[in-house]
Structure formats: structure tokens, C-alpha cells
Amino acid sequence: MKIRMNVNKDLKEKKIYSTLIQFIKFGIVGISNTLISYCTYAVLVWLGVNFLLSNLIGFVVSVLNSFYWNSRYVFDLNNADTKQKLKALIKTFISYAGTGLVLSSAMLILWIDIVQLSKYIAPIINLIITVPVNFVVNKVWAFKK
């Protein structure tokens, strides 16, 4: 009985450790993703493009970047067939559309139009909410094996 409890405890600890490592990798990918998204957004706003359109374009570019690295480095779809990868890509776009586009755009309107924050600071504040939500959605749905 005691051996079985130790085995279960070890398995549980390994799963927690594995998820933590996955979250750290997701964060590393997310940093590059955020830089790409933010730089795209900032350059387009600087060029005079509407902040919501700039957010949409930054979103598309960043989701493609995110999918590439998450499928190879975080959630390991390297051995998946084309159909599995395409399914994961579609799910990635859907999951990020909810948080990275809809929620982010709504919060941008709140921060910029209502609260009167800078167009350059508002997307940074959004990250506090969207990053943890994106990890959970990707882990339990988009890249679920």
C-alpha cells in the first residue's frame, strides 16, 4: 500500500514538473510571439494604421509564429501527420481568436478609448490576462493529443 502511494505521488510530481516545464517553454515562445505581435502593432500604428486593424495584423503574424514554435518545442507535434498539424493550427487560431483578438481588442477599446491609456502601453497590460488563458486553452484543447 505504501509503495503504491509513493508511486502515485511520484507520478503526480512528474506530471506537475512536466506541466511547469511546458509552461516555461510556452512563456519563452510567448516572449518572442509578444515581441513580434507588439512590434507589428506599434509599427503599423506609427504608420497611421487604425489600432484595431494593427492589432488584427499583429495577431495573425503572431499566431503563425506561436503555432510553429509551440508545435515543435512546447507541445511536440513533430511526429504528427499533416491532418493532425492542420487541426492543431485551426484550433490555435480559434483559441487565440478568443483571447488574443476578441478579448484583446475589447480591452484595447477599454484602455485606449475609455481609460485614455497610451496606444503603446495598452497591449502590454493585456498580456497579464491573455498569456495564462492562452496557455490553458492551448494545453487542454488546441494541442491535446
From TrEMBL:
Presence of the UniProt keyword Flavoprotein in the record: no
Transmembrane domains' residue ranges: 20-38, 44-68, 89-114, 120-137
Annotated membrane topology: Multi-pass membrane protein
Keyword annotations of the record: Membrane, Transmembrane, Transmembrane helix
Subcellular location: Membrane
Domain GtrA/DPMS transmembrane: from-to ranges: 25-143
Protein family per UniProt: Belongs to the GtrA family.
Protein name: GtrA family protein
Organism: Eubacterium album
